[in-house]
Design brief:
It is a single chain. The protein has 248 residues and is an alpha/beta fold. 28% of the residues lie in helices and 20% in strands. It contains seven helices and 13 strands. The strands form three sheets. The protein has a nine-stranded mixed sheet with strand order 4-1-5-6-13-12-11-8-9, with helices on both faces. Strands 2-3 form a two-stranded antiparallel ribbon. Strand 5, helix 3 and strand 6 form a beta-alpha-beta unit. Helix 3 packs across helix 4.
């Protein structure tokens, strides 16, 4: 038996990032905070490449005890059957394909999944939900959610509180009815996938977290707890809860 569960951390195409020079080899990247947070919680993190070969991807998936889906670029609206909005940002179709497939397999197999920011959106779309492509343009009375570092905000800027649903798995991990969160997104959940239940909402009513209401561990949050994992106990507890579920 492994002392640490293997947690697969998905990746992103280097070329999906703004400012990458042409001519560089096609590569995958991921912010190291995600896998450091998983490791600090007791997991052995493994980066998952973006493969079109489903047989190889399935072999990697089968070796994992849990799946962590980090933040990143926008989801392609084609994944939820909508044309692109004018405010849609950079997309990564290869990442969309891999992450949606991994979520579907994990839900079928009752394998734990934790989604962070984009990861919540991937879980929702994989299970049949839709997204606002730009909250400012499409969500009436939206508060500001896009506190991006390139706009001058630090990644640990606490943007607003979220109300956490009583009785939810998230409430158990965070141990609070209301918690302050950072916020670095301009997309969000429009229609919640039918299997999911909302487990946190922002002051403007936007769904900020969702989970499966059964024994399977599938949890997604719209903020970035990996930023606070070393300094804020409840953020660390969220990762520990996920790793414990992955350990089985």
């Amino acid at each position: 038996m492994r002392s640490r569960p293997l947690v697969g951390v998905t990746t992103q195409s280097l070329q999906a990032i703004d400012g990458i020079p042409e001519g560089l080899p096609t590569s995958v990247v991921m912010n190291q905070r995600y896998y450091h947070a998983a490791a600090a919680a007791g997991a052995a993190p493994v980066l998952i490449p973006l493969l079109d070969d489903l047989e190889t991807l399935r072999a990697i998936y089968d070796a994992m005890d849990g799946i962590l889906i980090p933040g990143g670029v926008d989801m392609d609206p084609a994944t939820f059957g909508e044309p692109a909005h004018a405010e849609l940002g950079r997309i990564d179709p290869a990442r969309d394909r891999v992450e949606i497939q991994l979520v579907k397999w994990a839900v079928e197999d009752h394998k734990p999944v934790l989604g962070l920011c984009r990861g919540l959106q991937v879980i929702n779309v994989a299970l049949g939900g839709t997204l606002y492509q730009d909250l400012e343009a499409e969500y009436p009375n939206a508060i500001k959610h896009d506190y991006f570092p390139n706009f001058g905000f630090s990644r640990d800027h606490l943007a607003h509180d979220v109300a956490v649903a009583a009785g939810s798995r998230l409430r158990h991990a965070l141990a609070g009815a209301s918690v302050p969160v950072n916020s670095m997104h301009h997309q969000g959940i429009k229609s919640l996938a039918r299997p999911l239940v909302a487990s946190a909402v922002a002051p403007d009513g936007l769904i900020e977290a969702a989970e499966l209401p059964n024994d399977s561990y599938v949890v997604g949050v719209q903020w970035h707890p990996e930023v606070f994992e070393l300094s804020e106990p409840s953020s660390g507890e969220l990762f520990r809860d996920f790793v414990a579920a992955s350990r089985g």
